[in-house]
């Protein structure tokens, strides 16, 4: 699981923006001391280097793989909470035979 947090200051309040990447068949765990607000998510593949694992280029070649329900899938499980767990093994398969990952961009905001 790759996670990157960026500290943002806006109008006197502090919010933390995060990115979480979870390889297929694992679980994403989003945590924040405040309230999670998901801005964007994708279950699929946008490059050949993220989550390469033991897979060959044939399993990674489709970098335009995206499930249109990704953001809704994550927001319904995470928005308004301070932590959530989301499966990166979704029954919808936007690109059969391609090794996928769940990528989530979110912000931690005060209540």
UniProtKB/TrEMBL annotation:
Boundaries of each SUEL-type lectin domain copy?
22-109
Q: Which InterPro entries match?
A: Lectin_gal-bd_dom, Lectin_gal-bd_sf
Write down the PROSITE patterns for this protein, in alphabetical order: SUEL_LECTIN
Q: Which UniProt keywords apply?
A: Lectin, Repeat
GO molecular function terms here?
A: carbohydrate binding
- Which Pfam families does the record associate with it? SUEL_Lectin
The yes or no answer to whether the keyword Protein biosynthesis is present is no
Q: What is this protein called?
A: SUEL-type lectin domain-containing protein
State the species of origin.
Maylandia zebra (zebra mbuna)
């Amino acid at each position: 699981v790759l996670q990157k947090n960026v500290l943002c200051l806006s109008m006197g309040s502090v919010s933390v923006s995060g990115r979480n990447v979870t390889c297929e068949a694992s679980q994403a765990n989003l945590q924040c001391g405040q309230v999670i607000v998901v801005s964007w998510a994708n279950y699929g593949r946008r490059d050949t280097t993220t989550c390469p694992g033991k897979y060959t280029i044939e399993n990674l070649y489709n970098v335009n793989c995206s499930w249109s329900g990704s953001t809704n899938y994550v927001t319904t499980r995470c928005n308004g909470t301070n932590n959530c767990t989301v499966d990166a093994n979704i029954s919808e398969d936007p690109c059969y035979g391609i090794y996928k990952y769940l990528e989530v961009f979110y912000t931690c905001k005060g209540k």
